[in-house]
Amino acid sequence: xxxxxxxxxxxxxxxxxxxxxxxxxxxxxxxxxxxxxxxxxxxxxxxxxxxxxxxxxxxxxxxxxxxxxxxxxxxxxxxxxxxxxxxxxxxxxxxxxxxxxxxxxxxxxxxxxxxxxxxxxxxxxxxxxxxxxxxxxxxxxxxxxxxxxxxxxxxxxxxxxxxxxxxxxxxxxxxxxxxxxxxxxxxxxxxxxxxxxxxxxxxxxxxxxxxxxxxxxxxxxxxxxxxxxxxxxxxxxxxxxxxxxxxxxxxxxxxxxxxxxxxxxxxxxxxx
Amino acid sequence: xxxxxxxxxxxxxxxxxxxxxxxxxxxxxxxxxxxxxxxxxxxxxxxxxxxxxxxxxxxxxxxxxxxxxxxxxxxxxxxxxxxxxxxxxxxxxxxxxxxxxxxxxxxxxxxxxxxxxxxxxxxxxxxxxxxxxxxxxxxxxxxxxxxxxxxxxxxxxxxxxxxxxxxxxxxxxxxxxxxxxxxxxxxxxxxxxxxxxxxxxxxxxxxxxxxxxxxxxxxxxxxxxxxxxxxxxxxxxxxxxxxxxxxxxxxxxxxxxxxxxxxxxxxxxxxxxxxxxxxxxxxxxxxxxxxxxxxxxxxxxxxxxxxxxxxxxxxxxxxxxxxxxx
Lengths: 272, 326
Prior knowledge:
- The structure holds two protein chains of two kinds.
- Chain A has helices at 3-18, 21-43, 62-85, 90-94, 98-101, 108-141, 157-170, 172-189, 192-211, 216-220, 223-226, 241-267; strands at 147-148, 154-155.
- Chain A is mainly α.
- Chain A has one domain (3-267).
- In chain A, strands 1-2 form a two-stranded antiparallel sheet.
- Chain B folds into two domains: 6-223, Rossmann fold (3-Layer(aba) Sandwich), CATH 3.40.50.300; 227-291, Alpha-Beta Plaits.
Protein backbone atom coordinates (compact mmCIF):
# COMPACT_ATOMS: atom_id res chain seq x y z
CA UNK A 1 0.00 0.00 0.00
CA UNK A 2 1.43 3.40 -0.96
CA UNK A 3 0.40 6.94 -0.04
CA UNK A 4 0.27 7.74 -3.75
CA UNK A 5 -2.13 4.85 -4.35
CA UNK A 6 -4.40 5.84 -1.48
CA UNK A 7 -4.38 9.45 -2.65
CA UNK A 8 -5.33 8.38 -6.17
CA UNK A 9 -8.28 6.36 -4.89
CA UNK A 10 -9.38 9.10 -2.50
CA UNK A 11 -9.23 11.65 -5.32
CA UNK A 12 -11.36 9.46 -7.56
CA UNK A 13 -13.89 8.88 -4.80
CA UNK A 14 -14.12 12.59 -3.98
CA UNK A 15 -14.72 13.34 -7.66
CA UNK A 16 -17.49 10.74 -7.78
CA UNK A 17 -19.09 12.02 -4.59
CA UNK A 18 -19.02 15.65 -5.69
CA UNK A 19 -20.60 14.65 -9.00
CA UNK A 20 -23.62 13.26 -7.14
CA UNK A 21 -26.65 15.43 -6.52
CA UNK A 22 -27.25 14.06 -3.03
CA UNK A 23 -23.89 15.20 -1.73
CA UNK A 24 -24.15 18.62 -3.29
CA UNK A 25 -27.62 18.86 -1.76
CA UNK A 26 -26.30 17.81 1.64
CA UNK A 27 -23.58 20.46 1.56
CA UNK A 28 -26.07 23.06 0.34
CA UNK A 29 -28.41 22.22 3.23
CA UNK A 30 -25.51 22.42 5.70
CA UNK A 31 -24.63 25.84 4.29
CA UNK A 32 -28.16 27.27 4.02
CA UNK A 33 -30.11 25.74 6.93
CA UNK A 34 -28.44 27.81 9.69
CA UNK A 35 -29.33 31.03 7.89
CA UNK A 36 -32.91 29.82 7.54
CA UNK A 37 -33.00 29.01 11.25
CA UNK A 38 -31.60 32.42 12.18
CA UNK A 39 -34.19 34.18 10.02
CA UNK A 40 -37.00 32.20 11.64
CA UNK A 41 -35.67 33.09 15.09
CA UNK A 42 -35.67 36.75 14.14
CA UNK A 43 -39.23 36.85 12.88
CA UNK A 44 -40.98 34.65 15.42
CA UNK A 45 -41.90 35.79 18.93
CA UNK A 46 -41.42 32.53 20.85
CA UNK A 47 -38.05 30.95 21.56
CA UNK A 48 -36.86 27.29 21.44
CA UNK A 49 -36.71 27.24 25.22
CA UNK A 50 -36.57 23.44 25.54
CA UNK A 51 -33.20 23.43 23.74
CA UNK A 52 -29.83 24.16 25.33
CA UNK A 53 -29.05 27.86 24.72
CA UNK A 54 -32.46 28.22 23.06
CA UNK A 55 -33.43 31.04 25.43
CA UNK A 56 -30.38 33.03 24.34
CA UNK A 57 -30.77 32.98 20.58
CA UNK A 58 -32.22 36.50 20.38
CA UNK A 59 -29.71 37.89 22.86
CA UNK A 60 -26.58 36.57 21.15
CA UNK A 61 -25.97 35.27 17.68
CA UNK A 62 -23.39 32.91 19.15
CA UNK A 63 -26.23 30.91 20.69
CA UNK A 64 -27.50 30.12 17.17
CA UNK A 65 -24.43 28.00 16.50
CA UNK A 66 -24.86 26.15 19.81
CA UNK A 67 -28.56 25.49 19.27
CA UNK A 68 -27.81 24.12 15.81
CA UNK A 69 -24.98 22.02 17.24
CA UNK A 70 -27.34 20.56 19.85
CA UNK A 71 -29.98 19.78 17.25
CA UNK A 72 -27.44 18.41 14.75
CA UNK A 73 -25.95 16.14 17.40
CA UNK A 74 -29.36 14.51 17.82
CA UNK A 75 -30.40 14.22 14.18
CA UNK A 76 -28.27 15.95 11.63
CA UNK A 77 -24.83 14.53 12.29
CA UNK A 78 -25.93 10.87 12.24
CA UNK A 79 -27.62 11.58 8.92
CA UNK A 80 -24.51 13.34 7.57
CA UNK A 81 -22.34 10.39 8.64
CA UNK A 82 -24.65 7.87 7.05
CA UNK A 83 -24.94 9.71 3.76
CA UNK A 84 -21.17 10.10 3.53
CA UNK A 85 -20.30 6.53 4.42
CA UNK A 86 -23.35 4.42 3.77
CA UNK A 87 -23.24 4.47 -0.01
CA UNK A 88 -19.59 4.68 -0.97
CA UNK A 89 -18.98 0.93 -1.00
CA UNK A 90 -22.45 -0.44 -1.71
CA UNK A 91 -22.69 1.81 -4.79
CA UNK A 92 -20.01 -0.39 -6.35
CA UNK A 93 -22.30 -3.38 -5.77
CA UNK A 94 -25.31 -1.52 -7.11
CA UNK A 95 -23.55 -0.45 -10.29
CA UNK A 96 -21.62 -3.74 -10.51
CA UNK A 97 -18.41 -1.73 -10.79
CA UNK A 98 -16.20 -3.63 -8.34
CA UNK A 99 -14.83 -5.56 -11.29
CA UNK A 100 -13.85 -2.29 -12.99
CA UNK A 101 -12.22 -0.83 -9.89
CA UNK A 102 -10.38 -3.98 -8.83
CA UNK A 103 -8.83 -4.54 -12.24
CA UNK A 104 -6.77 -1.36 -12.15
CA UNK A 105 -3.30 -0.80 -10.67
CA UNK A 106 -4.43 -0.49 -7.06
CA UNK A 107 -4.37 -3.04 -4.26
CA UNK A 108 -7.51 -3.80 -2.32
CA UNK A 109 -6.00 -2.15 0.74
CA UNK A 110 -5.37 1.03 -1.23
CA UNK A 111 -8.92 1.00 -2.55
CA UNK A 112 -10.50 0.45 0.87
CA UNK A 113 -8.26 3.03 2.53
CA UNK A 114 -8.80 5.58 -0.22
CA UNK A 115 -12.55 5.20 0.02
CA UNK A 116 -12.37 5.55 3.81
CA UNK A 117 -10.35 8.72 3.50
CA UNK A 118 -12.91 10.12 1.05
CA UNK A 119 -15.91 9.21 3.23
CA UNK A 120 -14.34 10.57 6.39
CA UNK A 121 -13.24 13.67 4.50
CA UNK A 122 -16.76 14.30 3.25
CA UNK A 123 -18.18 13.88 6.76
CA UNK A 124 -15.62 16.32 8.09
CA UNK A 125 -16.38 18.76 5.29
CA UNK A 126 -20.11 18.64 6.05
CA UNK A 127 -19.48 19.31 9.76
CA UNK A 128 -17.11 22.15 8.86
CA UNK A 129 -19.64 23.75 6.51
CA UNK A 130 -22.40 23.43 9.10
CA UNK A 131 -20.17 24.90 11.83
CA UNK A 132 -18.99 27.85 9.75
CA UNK A 133 -22.43 28.53 8.37
CA UNK A 134 -24.15 28.44 11.77
CA UNK A 135 -21.51 30.70 13.25
CA UNK A 136 -21.76 33.14 10.36
CA UNK A 137 -25.56 33.09 10.38
CA UNK A 138 -25.68 33.98 14.10
CA UNK A 139 -23.06 36.70 13.86
CA UNK A 140 -24.39 38.28 10.65
CA UNK A 141 -28.11 38.16 11.41
CA UNK A 142 -28.21 38.58 15.20
CA UNK A 143 -24.78 39.76 16.35
CA UNK A 144 -21.77 38.70 18.39
CA UNK A 145 -22.97 39.61 21.86
CA UNK A 146 -21.54 37.94 24.99
CA UNK A 147 -23.38 34.81 26.07
CA UNK A 148 -24.17 33.22 29.41
CA UNK A 149 -22.44 29.83 29.74
CA UNK A 150 -23.84 26.69 31.32
CA UNK A 151 -22.48 27.70 34.75
CA UNK A 152 -24.28 31.02 34.61
CA UNK A 153 -21.10 33.01 33.96
CA UNK A 154 -21.10 35.58 31.16
CA UNK A 155 -18.62 34.61 28.45
CA UNK A 156 -17.12 37.32 26.26
CA UNK A 157 -17.68 37.00 22.53
CA UNK A 158 -14.07 36.04 21.72
CA UNK A 159 -13.95 33.51 24.59
CA UNK A 160 -17.32 32.05 23.61
CA UNK A 161 -16.27 31.90 19.96
CA UNK A 162 -13.21 29.80 20.78
CA UNK A 163 -15.29 27.48 22.95
CA UNK A 164 -17.91 27.12 20.22
CA UNK A 165 -15.19 26.24 17.73
CA UNK A 166 -13.87 23.58 20.08
CA UNK A 167 -17.42 22.31 20.64
CA UNK A 168 -17.86 21.76 16.91
CA UNK A 169 -14.46 20.12 16.78
CA UNK A 170 -15.51 17.75 19.57
CA UNK A 171 -18.27 16.22 17.45
CA UNK A 172 -15.84 15.31 14.67
CA UNK A 173 -14.63 12.04 16.32
CA UNK A 174 -18.14 10.60 16.83
CA UNK A 175 -19.13 11.73 13.33
CA UNK A 176 -16.15 9.91 11.86
CA UNK A 177 -16.88 6.85 14.02
CA UNK A 178 -20.49 6.77 12.87
CA UNK A 179 -19.28 7.18 9.28
CA UNK A 180 -17.08 4.12 9.81
CA UNK A 181 -20.11 2.22 11.13
CA UNK A 182 -22.11 3.25 8.05
CA UNK A 183 -19.25 2.06 5.87
CA UNK A 184 -19.09 -1.37 7.42
CA UNK A 185 -22.88 -1.74 7.27
CA UNK A 186 -22.81 -0.87 3.57
CA UNK A 187 -19.99 -3.33 2.92
CA UNK A 188 -21.58 -6.20 4.78
CA UNK A 189 -25.13 -5.70 3.50
CA UNK A 190 -24.07 -4.45 0.02
CA UNK A 191 -27.12 -2.20 0.29
CA UNK A 192 -27.09 1.59 0.18
CA UNK A 193 -30.49 1.73 1.88
CA UNK A 194 -29.14 -0.28 4.79
CA UNK A 195 -25.87 1.63 4.80
CA UNK A 196 -27.64 4.96 5.10
CA UNK A 197 -30.68 3.89 7.12
CA UNK A 198 -29.34 1.48 9.73
CA UNK A 199 -26.73 3.80 11.32
CA UNK A 200 -29.37 6.53 11.67
CA UNK A 201 -31.77 4.06 13.28
CA UNK A 202 -28.97 2.79 15.52
CA UNK A 203 -28.19 6.36 16.60
CA UNK A 204 -31.84 6.96 17.42
CA UNK A 205 -32.04 3.70 19.35
CA UNK A 206 -28.96 4.68 21.34
CA UNK A 207 -30.54 8.01 22.22
CA UNK A 208 -33.59 6.17 23.52
CA UNK A 209 -31.38 3.78 25.48
CA UNK A 210 -29.62 6.75 27.05
CA UNK A 211 -32.94 7.86 28.51
CA UNK A 212 -33.45 4.59 30.35
CA UNK A 213 -32.31 4.46 33.95
CA UNK A 214 -29.43 2.13 34.56
CA UNK A 215 -25.71 1.89 35.22
CA UNK A 216 -23.55 4.74 33.93
CA UNK A 217 -20.93 2.74 32.04
CA UNK A 218 -23.16 1.37 29.23
CA UNK A 219 -24.53 4.86 28.71
CA UNK A 220 -21.03 6.26 28.31
CA UNK A 221 -20.25 3.59 25.72
CA UNK A 222 -23.02 4.79 23.43
CA UNK A 223 -21.66 6.73 20.47
CA UNK A 224 -24.50 9.21 20.79
CA UNK A 225 -23.26 10.21 24.24
CA UNK A 226 -20.09 11.43 22.56
CA UNK A 227 -22.16 13.96 20.59
CA UNK A 228 -23.03 15.74 23.88
CA UNK A 229 -19.51 15.85 25.29
CA UNK A 230 -19.11 19.46 24.24
CA UNK A 231 -21.34 20.70 27.09
CA UNK A 232 -18.35 20.73 29.43
CA UNK A 233 -16.62 23.27 27.22
CA UNK A 234 -19.35 25.83 27.86
CA UNK A 235 -19.09 25.51 31.65
CA UNK A 236 -16.84 27.74 33.74
CA UNK A 237 -14.38 26.35 34.52
CA UNK A 238 -14.67 23.93 31.58
CA UNK A 239 -14.45 20.20 32.26
CA UNK A 240 -12.95 17.79 29.79
CA UNK A 241 -13.65 14.32 31.15
CA UNK A 242 -16.60 13.62 28.80
CA UNK A 243 -14.47 14.76 25.85
CA UNK A 244 -11.79 12.18 26.59
CA UNK A 245 -14.47 9.53 27.06
CA UNK A 246 -16.02 10.57 23.74
CA UNK A 247 -12.71 10.30 21.94
CA UNK A 248 -12.03 6.86 23.37
CA UNK A 249 -15.52 5.58 22.57
CA UNK A 250 -15.33 7.01 19.04
CA UNK A 251 -11.94 5.46 18.48
CA UNK A 252 -13.29 2.11 19.68
CA UNK A 253 -16.27 2.19 17.33
CA UNK A 254 -14.09 3.29 14.42
CA UNK A 255 -11.44 0.64 15.07
CA UNK A 256 -13.93 -2.21 15.21
CA UNK A 257 -15.82 -0.95 12.16
CA UNK A 258 -12.70 -0.44 10.07
CA UNK A 259 -11.28 -3.82 11.03
CA UNK A 260 -14.51 -5.49 9.90
CA UNK A 261 -14.53 -3.42 6.71
CA UNK A 262 -10.99 -4.42 5.74
CA UNK A 263 -11.54 -8.04 6.65
CA UNK A 264 -14.78 -8.33 4.72
CA UNK A 265 -13.52 -6.66 1.56
CA UNK A 266 -10.21 -8.47 1.57
CA UNK A 267 -12.03 -11.80 1.51
CA UNK A 268 -14.72 -10.81 -0.94
CA UNK A 269 -14.83 -12.50 -4.30
CA UNK A 270 -16.26 -10.56 -7.19
CA UNK A 271 -18.54 -13.07 -8.83
CA UNK A 272 -21.23 -12.67 -11.43
CA UNK B 1 11.91 -11.40 -23.20
CA UNK B 2 9.18 -13.36 -21.48
CA UNK B 3 8.36 -16.74 -22.93
CA UNK B 4 4.81 -16.61 -21.59
CA UNK B 5 2.72 -13.55 -20.90
CA UNK B 6 0.18 -15.68 -19.08
CA UNK B 7 0.66 -18.96 -17.29
CA UNK B 8 -2.16 -20.64 -15.45
CA UNK B 9 -1.24 -23.91 -13.76
CA UNK B 10 -3.58 -26.37 -12.11
CA UNK B 11 -6.24 -23.83 -11.19
CA UNK B 12 -9.32 -25.22 -9.51
CA UNK B 13 -12.31 -23.39 -8.10
CA UNK B 14 -15.37 -24.77 -6.36
CA UNK B 15 -18.64 -22.93 -5.74
CA UNK B 16 -21.23 -24.39 -3.40
CA UNK B 17 -20.05 -27.93 -3.98
CA UNK B 18 -19.84 -27.53 -7.75
CA UNK B 19 -16.53 -27.65 -9.56
CA UNK B 20 -16.41 -24.47 -11.62
CA UNK B 21 -12.80 -25.10 -12.66
CA UNK B 22 -10.79 -28.29 -12.32
CA UNK B 23 -7.03 -28.36 -12.73
CA UNK B 24 -7.05 -25.81 -15.52
CA UNK B 25 -3.87 -24.97 -17.40
CA UNK B 26 -3.64 -22.09 -19.83
CA UNK B 27 -0.77 -20.28 -21.47
CA UNK B 28 -0.34 -17.41 -23.88
CA UNK B 29 2.86 -16.12 -25.42
CA UNK B 30 3.58 -12.56 -26.48
CA UNK B 31 1.84 -11.98 -29.81
CA UNK B 32 -0.64 -14.83 -29.28
CA UNK B 33 -4.35 -14.34 -29.66
CA UNK B 34 -5.81 -17.17 -27.63
CA UNK B 35 -9.51 -17.96 -27.79
CA UNK B 36 -11.43 -19.48 -24.91
CA UNK B 37 -14.33 -21.51 -26.23
CA UNK B 38 -16.98 -23.59 -24.60
CA UNK B 39 -20.69 -23.73 -23.88
CA UNK B 40 -22.44 -21.44 -21.41
CA UNK B 41 -21.44 -22.28 -17.86
CA UNK B 42 -18.30 -24.09 -18.97
CA UNK B 43 -16.09 -21.93 -16.73
CA UNK B 44 -14.64 -19.43 -19.21
CA UNK B 45 -15.67 -16.33 -17.28
CA UNK B 46 -14.70 -17.88 -13.95
CA UNK B 47 -11.25 -18.56 -15.36
CA UNK B 48 -10.92 -14.94 -16.49
CA UNK B 49 -12.10 -13.78 -13.05
CA UNK B 50 -9.36 -15.87 -11.45
CA UNK B 51 -6.74 -14.51 -13.83
CA UNK B 52 -7.84 -10.93 -13.18
CA UNK B 53 -7.71 -11.47 -9.42
CA UNK B 54 -11.43 -11.02 -8.84
CA UNK B 55 -11.85 -14.57 -7.58
CA UNK B 56 -9.36 -16.53 -5.50
CA UNK B 57 -8.61 -20.02 -6.79
CA UNK B 58 -8.84 -22.96 -4.38
CA UNK B 59 -5.71 -24.43 -5.97
CA UNK B 60 -3.19 -23.55 -8.63
CA UNK B 61 -1.15 -20.53 -9.61
CA UNK B 62 -1.48 -17.63 -12.01
CA UNK B 63 1.52 -15.78 -13.44
CA UNK B 64 0.93 -12.50 -15.26
CA UNK B 65 3.87 -11.15 -17.25
CA UNK B 66 6.17 -13.30 -15.17
CA UNK B 67 4.81 -12.21 -11.77
CA UNK B 68 2.70 -14.35 -9.48
CA UNK B 69 -0.78 -13.02 -8.83
CA UNK B 70 -1.31 -12.69 -5.08
CA UNK B 71 -4.62 -12.30 -3.31
CA UNK B 72 -5.48 -8.63 -2.91
CA UNK B 73 -2.52 -7.41 -4.93
CA UNK B 74 -2.85 -4.85 -7.70
CA UNK B 75 -3.06 -6.00 -11.27
CA UNK B 76 0.31 -5.38 -12.97
CA UNK B 77 0.31 -2.14 -14.95
CA UNK B 78 0.44 -3.74 -18.38
CA UNK B 79 -2.31 -6.27 -17.69
CA UNK B 80 -5.89 -5.31 -18.45
CA UNK B 81 -9.21 -6.94 -19.02
CA UNK B 82 -12.88 -7.17 -18.25
CA UNK B 83 -15.43 -9.84 -17.52
CA UNK B 84 -19.13 -9.91 -18.37
CA UNK B 85 -20.54 -6.65 -19.65
CA UNK B 86 -18.22 -3.84 -18.54
CA UNK B 87 -19.79 -1.66 -15.86
CA UNK B 88 -19.38 2.05 -15.25
CA UNK B 89 -20.85 4.84 -13.14
CA UNK B 90 -24.08 5.70 -14.94
CA UNK B 91 -24.28 9.29 -13.70
CA UNK B 92 -20.91 10.15 -15.27
CA UNK B 93 -20.12 10.60 -18.94
CA UNK B 94 -18.06 8.08 -20.86
CA UNK B 95 -15.15 10.50 -20.88
CA UNK B 96 -15.43 11.14 -17.13
CA UNK B 97 -15.54 7.41 -16.41
CA UNK B 98 -12.38 6.80 -18.41
CA UNK B 99 -10.64 9.76 -16.78
CA UNK B 100 -11.44 8.37 -13.32
CA UNK B 101 -10.13 4.93 -14.21
CA UNK B 102 -6.99 6.49 -15.67
CA UNK B 103 -6.56 8.47 -12.48
CA UNK B 104 -7.01 5.27 -10.47
CA UNK B 105 -4.17 3.77 -12.46
CA UNK B 106 -2.00 6.68 -11.37
CA UNK B 107 -1.22 7.75 -14.92
CA UNK B 108 0.27 11.13 -15.71
CA UNK B 109 -2.57 13.63 -15.51
CA UNK B 110 -1.02 16.16 -17.87
CA UNK B 111 -1.88 14.21 -21.01
CA UNK B 112 -4.92 12.43 -19.58
CA UNK B 113 -7.51 14.27 -21.73
CA UNK B 114 -5.60 13.43 -24.91
CA UNK B 115 -5.13 9.81 -23.85
CA UNK B 116 -8.80 9.38 -22.98
CA UNK B 117 -9.98 11.04 -26.17
CA UNK B 118 -7.65 8.90 -28.25
CA UNK B 119 -9.18 5.69 -26.86
CA UNK B 120 -12.71 7.04 -27.27
CA UNK B 121 -11.87 7.78 -30.88
CA UNK B 122 -10.27 4.38 -31.39
CA UNK B 123 -13.35 2.57 -30.09
CA UNK B 124 -15.83 4.71 -31.99
CA UNK B 125 -17.26 6.55 -29.00
CA UNK B 126 -15.90 10.03 -29.60
CA UNK B 127 -19.29 11.41 -30.57
CA UNK B 128 -20.88 10.03 -27.39
CA UNK B 129 -18.08 11.00 -25.02
CA UNK B 130 -20.08 13.58 -23.09
CA UNK B 131 -23.24 11.50 -22.70
CA UNK B 132 -23.95 9.95 -19.30
CA UNK B 133 -23.16 6.24 -19.44
CA UNK B 134 -26.64 5.51 -18.06
CA UNK B 135 -27.90 6.32 -21.56
CA UNK B 136 -25.44 4.03 -23.37
CA UNK B 137 -26.57 0.91 -25.19
CA UNK B 138 -25.05 -2.48 -24.35
CA UNK B 139 -22.81 -2.22 -27.41
CA UNK B 140 -21.60 1.23 -26.38
CA UNK B 141 -20.78 -0.03 -22.90
CA UNK B 142 -18.84 -2.83 -24.50
CA UNK B 143 -16.88 -0.31 -26.56
CA UNK B 144 -16.28 1.80 -23.46
CA UNK B 145 -15.05 -1.31 -21.68
CA UNK B 146 -12.57 -1.86 -24.47
CA UNK B 147 -11.48 1.78 -24.29
CA UNK B 148 -10.98 1.46 -20.52
CA UNK B 149 -8.64 -1.51 -20.87
CA UNK B 150 -6.75 0.01 -23.80
CA UNK B 151 -5.95 3.00 -21.57
CA UNK B 152 -3.61 0.67 -19.68
CA UNK B 153 -1.54 0.00 -22.82
CA UNK B 154 -1.75 -3.72 -22.14
CA UNK B 155 0.89 -6.31 -22.91
CA UNK B 156 -1.57 -8.92 -21.67
CA UNK B 157 -5.23 -8.35 -22.45
CA UNK B 158 -8.05 -10.53 -21.15
CA UNK B 159 -11.47 -10.02 -22.67
CA UNK B 160 -14.75 -11.75 -21.95
CA UNK B 161 -17.05 -11.84 -24.98
CA UNK B 162 -15.70 -8.54 -26.35
CA UNK B 163 -17.95 -8.57 -29.42
CA UNK B 164 -21.11 -9.43 -27.49
CA UNK B 165 -23.83 -6.87 -28.17
CA UNK B 166 -21.72 -5.02 -30.71
CA UNK B 167 -22.86 -4.48 -34.28
CA UNK B 168 -20.96 -5.89 -37.26
CA UNK B 169 -18.85 -2.77 -37.74
CA UNK B 170 -18.00 -2.72 -34.06
CA UNK B 171 -17.01 -6.39 -34.11
CA UNK B 172 -14.75 -5.66 -37.07
CA UNK B 173 -13.15 -2.82 -35.08
CA UNK B 174 -12.61 -5.13 -32.11
CA UNK B 175 -10.94 -7.71 -34.32
CA UNK B 176 -8.72 -5.03 -35.84
CA UNK B 177 -7.71 -3.75 -32.40
CA UNK B 178 -6.95 -7.27 -31.18
CA UNK B 179 -4.84 -7.98 -34.26
CA UNK B 180 -3.00 -4.70 -33.87
CA UNK B 181 -2.22 -5.37 -30.19
CA UNK B 182 -1.00 -8.87 -30.98
CA UNK B 183 1.06 -7.48 -33.84
CA UNK B 184 2.68 -5.12 -31.35
CA UNK B 185 3.60 -8.09 -29.17
CA UNK B 186 0.77 -8.19 -26.67
CA UNK B 187 -0.85 -11.47 -25.70
CA UNK B 188 -4.62 -11.43 -25.99
CA UNK B 189 -6.89 -14.00 -24.38
CA UNK B 190 -10.56 -13.75 -25.00
CA UNK B 191 -13.63 -15.85 -24.52
CA UNK B 192 -16.23 -15.73 -27.22
CA UNK B 193 -19.27 -17.41 -28.65
CA UNK B 194 -18.59 -15.54 -31.87
CA UNK B 195 -16.85 -18.38 -33.67
CA UNK B 196 -16.26 -16.35 -36.80
CA UNK B 197 -14.21 -13.91 -34.76
CA UNK B 198 -12.30 -16.75 -33.12
CA UNK B 199 -11.48 -18.33 -36.45
CA UNK B 200 -10.41 -14.99 -37.89
CA UNK B 201 -8.18 -13.69 -35.14
CA UNK B 202 -7.08 -16.52 -32.87
CA UNK B 203 -3.79 -18.29 -33.34
CA UNK B 204 -4.58 -20.81 -30.60
CA UNK B 205 -7.62 -21.85 -28.65
CA UNK B 206 -8.60 -23.66 -25.49
CA UNK B 207 -11.90 -25.46 -25.27
CA UNK B 208 -13.39 -25.60 -21.81
CA UNK B 209 -16.23 -27.87 -20.82
CA UNK B 210 -17.60 -28.35 -17.32
CA UNK B 211 -14.63 -26.55 -15.81
CA UNK B 212 -11.96 -28.61 -17.58
CA UNK B 213 -9.76 -27.74 -20.52
CA UNK B 214 -10.58 -30.49 -23.00
CA UNK B 215 -8.48 -29.11 -25.82
CA UNK B 216 -5.67 -26.62 -26.13
CA UNK B 217 -3.86 -25.91 -29.35
CA UNK B 218 -4.33 -24.45 -32.80
CA UNK B 219 -7.60 -24.52 -34.73
CA UNK B 220 -5.83 -26.59 -37.33
CA UNK B 221 -4.88 -29.13 -34.69
CA UNK B 222 -8.47 -29.25 -33.50
CA UNK B 223 -9.68 -29.90 -37.02
CA UNK B 224 -7.12 -32.66 -37.44
CA UNK B 225 -8.54 -34.69 -34.57
CA UNK B 226 -12.14 -34.44 -35.73
CA UNK B 227 -13.40 -37.98 -36.34
CA UNK B 228 -16.14 -37.57 -38.93
CA UNK B 229 -16.95 -35.44 -41.93
CA UNK B 230 -20.10 -33.41 -41.90
CA UNK B 231 -22.54 -32.82 -44.74
CA UNK B 232 -25.27 -30.29 -45.30
CA UNK B 233 -28.52 -32.11 -46.06
CA UNK B 234 -31.82 -30.75 -47.36
CA UNK B 235 -34.80 -33.11 -47.55
CA UNK B 236 -38.50 -33.09 -48.27
CA UNK B 237 -39.25 -33.88 -44.61
CA UNK B 238 -36.60 -32.93 -42.06
CA UNK B 239 -38.60 -34.28 -39.14
CA UNK B 240 -38.75 -37.78 -40.58
CA UNK B 241 -35.14 -37.54 -41.65
CA UNK B 242 -34.12 -36.88 -38.03
CA UNK B 243 -36.28 -39.81 -36.82
CA UNK B 244 -34.74 -42.13 -39.37
CA UNK B 245 -31.28 -41.01 -38.25
CA UNK B 246 -32.18 -42.15 -34.77
CA UNK B 247 -32.57 -45.71 -35.97
CA UNK B 248 -29.62 -45.62 -38.36
CA UNK B 249 -26.29 -46.60 -36.88
CA UNK B 250 -23.27 -44.29 -36.86
CA UNK B 251 -25.12 -41.18 -37.94
CA UNK B 252 -25.67 -37.98 -35.98
CA UNK B 253 -27.98 -35.30 -37.30
CA UNK B 254 -28.12 -31.73 -35.99
CA UNK B 255 -30.15 -28.74 -37.12
CA UNK B 256 -28.19 -26.57 -39.54
CA UNK B 257 -28.65 -23.11 -40.99
CA UNK B 258 -31.53 -22.12 -43.30
CA UNK B 259 -33.80 -25.20 -43.19
CA UNK B 260 -30.99 -27.64 -43.50
CA UNK B 261 -29.59 -30.47 -41.42
CA UNK B 262 -25.98 -31.23 -40.60
CA UNK B 263 -25.15 -34.92 -40.85
CA UNK B 264 -21.98 -36.26 -39.28
CA UNK B 265 -21.06 -39.79 -40.26
CA UNK B 266 -18.34 -41.81 -41.95
CA UNK B 267 -18.80 -42.68 -45.61
CA UNK B 268 -20.42 -46.09 -45.11
CA UNK B 269 -22.88 -44.90 -42.50
CA UNK B 270 -23.80 -41.93 -44.68
CA UNK B 271 -24.51 -44.24 -47.65
CA UNK B 272 -26.78 -46.41 -45.51
CA UNK B 273 -28.55 -43.33 -44.15
CA UNK B 274 -29.28 -41.90 -47.60
CA UNK B 275 -30.69 -45.27 -48.76
CA UNK B 276 -32.80 -45.42 -45.58
CA UNK B 277 -34.17 -41.97 -46.31
CA UNK B 278 -35.21 -43.07 -49.80
CA UNK B 279 -36.83 -46.20 -48.45
CA UNK B 280 -38.60 -44.13 -45.83
CA UNK B 281 -40.15 -41.86 -48.43
CA UNK B 282 -37.92 -38.84 -47.70
CA UNK B 283 -36.49 -37.19 -50.80
CA UNK B 284 -32.90 -35.99 -50.61
CA UNK B 285 -32.85 -32.61 -52.32
CA UNK B 286 -29.36 -31.51 -51.47
CA UNK B 287 -26.34 -33.23 -49.96
CA UNK B 288 -23.05 -31.42 -49.84
CA UNK B 289 -19.84 -32.17 -48.06
CA UNK B 290 -18.49 -29.14 -46.32
CA UNK B 291 -15.35 -28.24 -44.48
CA UNK B 292 -15.91 -28.86 -40.83
CA UNK B 293 -16.74 -25.61 -39.10
CA UNK B 294 -15.45 -24.81 -35.67
CA UNK B 295 -19.03 -24.81 -34.48
CA UNK B 296 -19.67 -28.42 -35.35
CA UNK B 297 -16.30 -29.41 -33.98
CA UNK B 298 -17.07 -27.74 -30.70
CA UNK B 299 -20.49 -29.33 -30.50
CA UNK B 300 -18.83 -32.63 -30.96
CA UNK B 301 -16.19 -31.94 -28.33
CA UNK B 302 -18.47 -30.56 -25.70
CA UNK B 303 -21.67 -32.37 -26.56
CA UNK B 304 -20.43 -35.97 -26.85
CA UNK B 305 -17.07 -35.94 -25.20
CA UNK B 306 -16.90 -39.65 -24.50
CA UNK B 307 -17.55 -40.76 -28.08
CA UNK B 308 -14.59 -38.85 -29.47
CA UNK B 309 -11.90 -38.51 -26.86
CA UNK B 310 -9.48 -35.73 -27.57
CA UNK B 311 -6.10 -35.06 -26.11
CA UNK B 312 -5.94 -32.77 -23.13
CA UNK B 313 -2.95 -31.15 -21.48
CA UNK B 314 -1.04 -33.35 -19.11
CA UNK B 315 -1.93 -32.66 -15.46
CA UNK B 316 0.19 -29.92 -13.99
CA UNK B 317 1.73 -28.94 -17.29
CA UNK B 318 1.30 -25.79 -19.26
CA UNK B 319 0.08 -26.60 -22.72
CA UNK B 320 2.43 -25.42 -25.40
CA UNK B 321 0.36 -23.74 -28.08
CA UNK B 322 2.70 -24.97 -30.75
CA UNK B 323 2.40 -28.59 -29.69
CA UNK B 324 -0.89 -29.09 -27.87
CA UNK B 325 -3.55 -30.94 -29.71
CA UNK B 326 -1.09 -32.49 -32.08
